[in-house]
Amino acid sequence: MKNFVCTIALTLLNVSGRSQPPAFISDSLDAYILQGLKDWSVPGLSIVIVKDGKTVLMKGYGIKNVEAPQPVDENTLFMIASNTKLFTGTALALLEHRGKLSLNDKITKYFPDFKLYDKNSTALVTIRDMLSHRIGTKTFQGDFTFWNTRLNR
Q1: Mind listing the pLDDT tens digit for each residue in 96-152?
Q2: Which is nearest to 105 in space by CA: 116, 94, 117, 92?
Q3: For residue 70, what is the DSSP state?
Q4: Secondary element (H or E) of residue 129
């Protein structure tokens, strides 16, 4: 499953660097995704490809729930767990590559209200520390804060 999601993510990153969407989006992307769903026993997924601020593709595949099969559409929401770490890390690495920030910047440079249990620890935390999970927060601290929320996106 993780390999399938990573492959799609890397494919989308590759698409974002081109001036025109490649032919595979109309030729074979559907077949590729449907085969991936089958190979990895994934019930469903939704995908969006954005190029230069314009939506190239936004579509759902498969079903939302194996017990109550309803089709996935482009508006289906999924709990994506730790995949956001991949997207966040990739985006920050790209910003560093472009000279917009350094992974060694203090987190308080961008989030001045960030606080840990003491001032010294707060003052030392870098973006790299946040990505490496080495600042001493407890396991799952905050992970389930919005689990059953009634808030919209």
Answers
A1: 999 999 999 999 999 999 988 889 989 999 999 988 877 776 665 555 555 666 766
A2: 92
A3: -
A4: helix 127-132
The partner residues of 62 in beta bridges, in order of sequence, read 44
Picking from 40, 33, 39, the residue whose alpha carbon sits closest to that of residue 12 is 33
pLDDT band at 1 (very low <50, low <70, confident <90, very high): low
Pick the closest to residue 106 from 123, 83, 120 (CA basis).
123
Per the DSSP assignment, residues forming a β-bridge with 48 are: 58
Q: Which helix (H) or strand (E) holds 12?
A: helix 2-16
The Cα-based distances of 56 to 48, 50, 52, 67 in angstroms read: 8, 6, 9, 32
- Is-contact 60 44, C-beta < 8 A? yes
Full-prediction pTM beyond 0.70? no
Query: Can you read off the two tokens belonging to residue 83?
Result: 């995949």
Q: Are 39 and 74 in contact (CB under 8 A)?
A: no
**Contact between residue 29 and residue 22 where contact means Cβ atoms under 8 Å apart:** no
Judged against a pLDDT cut of 50, whether residue 58 lies above it is answered with yes
Instruction: Please give the Cα distance from 93 to 128 (Å, whole number).
Output: 10
For the four alpha carbons of 36, 18, 87 and 54, in that order, the dihedral sign comes to negative
